[in-house]
Design brief:
- The chain is α/β, with parallel strands linked by helices and 198 residues long.
- It has one domain: Rossmann fold.
- Helices cover 25% and strands 29% of the residues.
- It contains 5 helices and 9 strands; from the N terminus they run H-E-H-E-H-E-E-E-H-E-E-E-E-H.
- Helix 4 links the parallel strand 5 and strand 6.
- Helix 2 crosses helix 3.
- The longest helix is centred in the N-terminal third of the chain and has 18 residues.
- The chain binds inosinic acid.
């Protein structure tokens, strides 16, 4: 995928590292939910690749639901405004729910979703996220199942996008500032990488 690879400054996690971690998360969830039925709620769109792999490592009864949420109006900075574009169709009252997210950055999205789903009285509500940027937090959130922590840099691949591109990269990498600048048609005065929480 040379065209997309050219826009990547460095690779943080190769496909085999991702696979090992996803397998570990699946094993932990299988152990914790032994004998239970899990309602997996995939936060679209970024988490779809991660979750597709994750459920294949979960040895428990599951059902899968989807929510489409938007907090980025394009670009690399969160708007802080979480919009529910598509809600769950299923009633989750009395159910064990795991929210599956690609990355917890400011924490605003997951915090908003937890608050919303809590009002529907699930038996339990946990969060599984492949990535976390702890340095960017604006609200405290507990990530019950976490893959990796990443630095304050904009990452793409394995489902994560920049303006809807790069989701199909099999690895997770940091974008070149030039790739971001070109798309925005401008440059940052200090020439530094565009970051999402600075
Ligand atoms: P939060 O509400 O700031 O925690 O942002 C969560 C959402 O922002 C994630 O589900 C992603 O869709 C998006 N996001 C945050 N950081 C990145 C990044 O580095 N790359 C791609 N998407 C990101």
């Amino acid at each position: 995928m040379a065209r997309l690879d050219d826009h990547i400054e460095k690779i943080l996690f190769q496909p085999d590292e991702l696979n090992v971690k996803v397998k570990e998360l699946g094993a932990q969830i299988s152990k914790d939910y032994k004998g239970k039925h899990i309602n997996i709620v995939v936060i679209l769109r970024g988490a779809f690749v991660f979750c597709a792999d994750l459920i294949r490592y979960i040895d428990a009864d599951i059902s899968v639901g989807f929510m489409v949420v938007s907090s980025y109006g394009g670009g690399t900075k969160t708007s802080g405004n979480v919009r529910i574009i598509k809600d769950l169709q299923k009633n989750i009252e009395g159910e064990d729910v795991i929210l599956v997210e690609d990355i917890v950055d400011t924490g605003l999205t997951i915090s908003h979703l937890k608050d919303l789903l809590s009002t529907r009285h699930p038996a339990s509500l946990k969060v599984c996220s492949l990535l976390s940027k702890p340095s960017c937090r604006r609200v405290d959130v507990i990530v019950d199942y976490l893959g990796f922590e990443v630095p304050d840099e904009f990452v793409v691949g394995y489902g994560l996008d920049y303006e809807q591109n790069y989701r199909q990269l099999p690895y997770i990498g940091v974008m070149k500032p030039s790739a971001i600048k070109v798309k925005h048609g401008g440059t940052k005065a200090d020439g530094s990488s565009t970051k999402d929480c600075s």
